[in-house]
From TrEMBL:
Residues 24-131 form the Alcohol dehydrogenase-like N-terminal domain. This is Zinc-binding alcohol dehydrogenase family protein. GO terms for molecular function: oxidoreductase activity. Residues 172-299 form the Alcohol dehydrogenase-like C-terminal domain. It comes from the Bacteria. Keywords: Oxidoreductase. InterPro entries: ADH-like_C, ADH-like_N, GroES-like_sf, NAD(P)-bd_dom_sf, Zn_alcohol_dh. CDD domains: Zn_ADH7.
């Protein structure tokens, strides 16, 4: 069968690989229909993902149909059903799993990162990793997983309708944060340096926007919050400057949530941690309840799916699309590969 393989840094190609074996007990064979490229796929292509070895088949943002059921797969799963997939694993034994936070399992292996992904015609997964919706298209299903990362960050920030939430970055993950915070009826301030991305953030639920290239971020945030600072700061860029700005701009007793990794060491003024008694939290992957929340949000029809998906390409054109994204990352929000 056909698959996309990142064979080495800056090189991907269409390859032939063996079809998966028949699904075992509790497993399902999926016919892959639509897969989104993730930012982790881009870093893998560029040779910057320390968790990836080569060759690697990318892909964990999945819209598929059930092709075959293994033994002991319970209802409601049936052949031909549209599904999406949670691409993570959990060991059930580490401290995180014992605490119920399986999204950050010490031994997690995400599809397309630590193990091969779904940028291929067929894939076998445990039925426990499936989600479905009668209302969503396969295109929307392939958009669920990246949005769950943002929804999980919002949950980590314990966002409520009483909060002003600042989101640094309006890429695919940042838009998920914005949509998740908006779904909780918070005031959402999107911060970016691209006016087009800020306009899209508005469509995703941002109530306010700040172009930090042209405006004084501190002054704007002080104006919006009567001099107190925002209640929650969520970082979805990965720059030392925005990591630092989170602790500097958040209010006293505020919450800071970091999703990505800073691309260089961060030189903090740590007095803010103590003076403000901040809650500083990481956010990794997503929980099953985040998938349920995103499915409900997309079912409501308020999310601008067509605007967020920048382009859709064929499997044959997927390697070229990945290379083009690497050349001009700022021009792309989300690429989908349609099978």
């Amino acid at each position: 069968m056909k698959a996309i393989s990142i064979t080495e840094p800056n090189q991907s190609e269409l390859v032939d690989i063996p079809a998966p074996a028949a699904p075992g007990a509790g497993e399902v064979l999926l016919k892959v229909r639509q897969v989104g490229y993730c930012g982790s796929d881009l870093t893998s292509f560029r040779g910057l993902n320390p968790m990836v070895s080569y060759p690697r088949i990318p892909g964990h943002e999945i819209g598929a149909t059930i092709e075959q059921l293994g033994a002991d797969v319970p209802e409601p799963w049936v052949k031909g059903q549209k599904v999406l997939v949670s691409p993570y694993t959990s060991c059930g034994k580490c401290a995180a799993c014992k605490a119920g936070r399986v999204n950050t399992c010490k031994s997690n292996q995400t599809m397309g990162v630590q193990r091969d992904g779904a940028m291929t015609e067929y894939v076998v997964v445990p039925h426990e990793k499936l989600f479905t919706s009668d209302k969503l298209s396969l295109e929307e299903m392939a958009l669920v997983e990246p949005l769950t990362v943002g929804f999980h960050a919002v949950a980590r920030g314990e966002v409520t309708s009483e909060d002003t939430v600042v989101v640094f970055g309006c890429g695919a993950i940042g838009l998920g944060v914005i949509a998740g915070a908006a779904a909780r009826n918070a005031r959402v301030v999107a911060v970016d340096i691209d006016d087009e991305k800020l306009a899209l953030a508005k469509r995703c639920g941002a109530t306010d926007t700040v172009n930090s290239m042209n405006e004084d971020l501190h002054e704007r945030l002080q104006e919006m919050t009567d001099g107190e600072g925002p209640n929650v700061m969520i970082e979805a860029v990965g720059l030392p400057a925005t990591f630092k700005a989170c602790v500097e701009e958040v209010c006293f007793a505020g919450r800071v949530v970091y999703i990505g990794y800073a691309k260089a060491a961060v030189d903090y003024e740590t007095k803010y941690f103590v003076m403000k008694e901040l809650d500083i939290r990481g956010s990794r992957n997503a929980m099953p309840e985040d998938f349920d929340a995103v499915v409900r949000h997309l079912e409501s029809g308020v999310f601008p799916t067509d605007a967020v998906i920048t382009k859709t390409v064929s499997l044959e054109d997927a390697p070229a699309a990945l290379a083009a994204w690497s050349e001009n990352p700022g021009e792309i929000t989300k690429i989908h590969v349609k099978f």
